[in-house]
Amino acid sequence: MYAIVDIETTGGYAANHRITEIAVYLHDGIQITDTYHTLVNPGRNIPYYITGLTGITTEMVLDAPSFEEVAETVFNLLDGKVFVAHNAHFDYSFLKREFELAGINWQSKKLCTVRLSRKIIPGLRSYSLGTLSESLGIQISNRHRAHGDAHATVKIFDQLLRRDRENHIAKALKRNSGETILPPNLPKEDFDKLPAQPGVYYFHNARGQVIYVGKAINIKKRIAGHFTGDAREWSRSKIRNEIHHISYELTGNELIALILESQEIRRLWPKYNQAQKYKAEEWGIYEYEDRNGYLRFSVNMVTRGSHPLIKFSTKGDAWNFLWEKVREFDLCPKLCGLQLAKGLCFNYQTGECHGACEGVETVKRYNKRVHKAIDTFKIAGNSAAIIGRGRNIDEQSVVLVDKGTYYGFGYIGKDVSIVDFESARNYVRSSTETPTVQNLINSYLTNPRGTEVVVF
Predict the structure, then answer these.
(1) Which of 280, 196, 274, 175 shows the shortest CA–CA distance to 233?
(2) pLDDT tens, 262-276?
(3) Where residue 182 falls among pLDDT bands split at 50, 70, 90?
(4) Which SS3 state, helix, strand or coil, does residue 66 take?
């Protein structure tokens, strides 16, 4: 018996996010025998960019059961079944974590329809759920919703069962699901002494050279993820055999870790840090006028010669920023490029949108609010300090911004107050501003997420 599963979540990794929707299709290898579907209250707000992708809002899950309330039902459905999902590790890790929080010990054999499809149906241009379904003639209703995506996965699995002439499914069930041993040349004591705190870590080769620099909110957990195959790129890398020692530097919070990681990669130029050896990926918010005269926004990667209103390190940061402006200035999510689902604008249905997307609100009135929003994008003239958690309970971190440009970071005692730029400089070591770091600063200035921004 198979349990074919899809979930929707508040974010991309199980340690810091929760499930918002789950669908389960039980399958006996021939047909569906039972189904289950429910929204789940994650106990937190659903990020705006997740709502834009899935259509699931915080309001929709307020009256839904928590995972703890449905845990026994879900466990009974999954217990003793082979767990099947598209990108199975993602769904499995979330459910494993949710069961742990509910006090339930659950584990299962698992199959990934992405990995199986690559072997049983080789040569396709992509194995994403949407593209694979299209290649196999499968239509997905309710895309990016658990019941729709799970049903598409059922149809894909049906085809894999029929086409599996070389018994790839049986072979996959016999294999160990993940690498659990440490790299062969790494002393166990190096791993055992790693802290479960935010910071930057360094992998060294036999000659002591740094071959990789990484950052983490939890150093020990992140590194364990590398070695257990949680990060896909590591399964294809030769780096495991080259790691002889690990060192680290605590940072106190994620922002400092991100800044220090970027600076250390540029300083050391490690062998296996490929991503930042090339131009950093940047996402910009662009303004344009549609054929009806309404001003619109779009979020796209920054390319040479383009002139975005503001830039960010990730698409998620840009979307979250835009959602804040939608709420602050009563803008239309559809005209801001934030609603991917078809149909009426979410806010129009609830009365929060004045109807520009339906041509109800006049161009002049709507565009006036857009211009006010754009004025708030321009943070370049501000000098500020971003205050965050320190490396211990007696200190706090400070990131200094000089007229919108990153200046440096440092640490101060919790009893020290930052009142102006000149006094703050005494606690900060200045460093070179890079596009990656500057985009991080833009993100935190507009969305502090766990830090405090003091504007001078």
Answers:
(1) 274
(2) 999 988 999 888 765
(3) low
(4) strand
